[in-house]
Every structure is written in structure tokens, then in C-alpha cells.
Amino acid sequence: MVLLISILVTFTTGLKAQQPVVLNVIDSLTIRPVHPPVFEGITTDTTHLLLSDWPVTLVKYSYGEPKINFIAIHDDEDTGVKAAFEYIRFSGGSIIDCQYGGIRNFKFMYNNEEFQTDPNSIYTPAGIARGLEKYNWAAPEVVNMLANTAKEILKLYNPETPPYIFTLHNNGDGGFGIHDYLKGYPLENFADSLYINFEMDADDLILVTDVNLFNRLKKENVNVVLQSNNAPDDGSLSYYAMQQRIPYVNVEVQHGHLYEHLRLIEIAAKALEETILPL
Ligand SMILES: [Zn+2]
Fold it and tell me: How far is the CA of 171 from the centre of ligand 1 (A)?
């Protein structure tokens, strides 16, 4: 049964312009018809942020015993969210899904100017500036707004408990893939070590920042990248995690590779439990 929940949104006036406005936080709602389709018994906590004039909704879906917590930060990537639902349906856990119109970038107006950035470039000051400069310029108020948005996302995810960050991404066929980290390719500076299973689709891979996790995943014969400690500061969540010494896992597959996404999530979750979270 689907219950429609009417949400009372409280607008707060008089806040400084550079802060994202937390409109409302709602605890443990019954399911409601948001994307992707949810299953019975799953609960949601919804946080509404306003990035200048751009609404960003963070939906935390939880089910069963708390176990692995996931986060999906690009709103045009749904395969990971669906795979996470399948994982938590059987094993318990949660996923934070960032929703802002089904596209990749944040796009918003500030002082009659349009700004745009990749939401995966807002986790360090240098990354925020670089991300904005790809499209316009790094207006200081806009830099502050994005830094505060990143803080709100991390506060909801709370990477200290659990002591890791586990993200899910999707990519296009033949675009970004594990080969991009090989010597002479665009991302060679981002990787310290690579393990490639040539029988897998090159678009399907796991990226980690912890060497023990990397060595453990190699034994599973899956595509895996160990991010370099000298990776350029692109403001990504993986760079932030490395800087903060928080073990980071990204399971990334081609759009639509749902079964492979679930398989790699299961492998990575098990490896995480055996190396970072000994039971
Ligand atoms: Zn992504």
C-alpha cells in the first residue's frame, strides 16, 4: 500500500545567503512513490536542501538491521540505487540517494548568473573552485554554498559511524572504464595500483583507497583500482575520504548492469567487513 504523505515545508527567512537552507527533516516515513520503486517495509528519512534556487533532496532508505550504508551522489545514475535496494532487502542496511532532477550536475542561479558543477567535486575547497570554473567562475558565496551542501550530505551519511564511505556510481558503455587508469591514459595519476580481470566488462569496477582492501579484492578476481595518495585534488568524495583517512569504496558499473552491480557490492561489502570492520 502506498501512502501519500503531505510534507510541511518550512521556509526559514533571514539566513545568510551562502548557507544551504535545510528546509525540513522527516524521520521514518512510510514508503511513498519516489524513484526508484521501493519495497514494502523500507523506511525513508528525507532532508530537503536549497542550493540557492536549486532543490536537492537527500533520501535515506533503510531496511532491517543496520549493516552496510551506501551513498549515490549522481542523480542520473539509478542502477546503483536499485542494486543497493536488492542488497539491503536481504542483508539490511541503508542508502542515501541524492535527488535533484535526474541529471548529473547541480545547476542553479545566483545573483542572476547561472552556475553549474559536478556534485562529486564539492568535498574540498580546491575541488569546489575547479568544479565551478569548468562552467563559469568560483564566486565566493557560491563556493560557501557548495561547501555547506557537502557538509549536510556528509552529516547525513556520518562516515565516522560507520568508519568508511561506500559509494555507488554508474557510467556509459565504453566511456570511463578501468583502462583509463593505465599508464598513458587520462586517469593514470589517480591510480597507485590496478588489477584487471580481462573477462569482465571494463566499465565495471571497484575503486578503493585502502591497500588492505585492495589486496583482499584482488583475490576475488574483479577489476579493482587503488587510488593514489598523490591523486589530484578534484574535490571528489574519494579524495576527501583519502585526505581524512576514511577507507573509501566505490562500486561502479555500466548503466543497467544491475546483476553485476549487486555481485560487486556483495564482494566489496564482504571484503570491507573482513578488513576494515572485523567482526
Ligand atoms: Zn557517478
Answer: 7
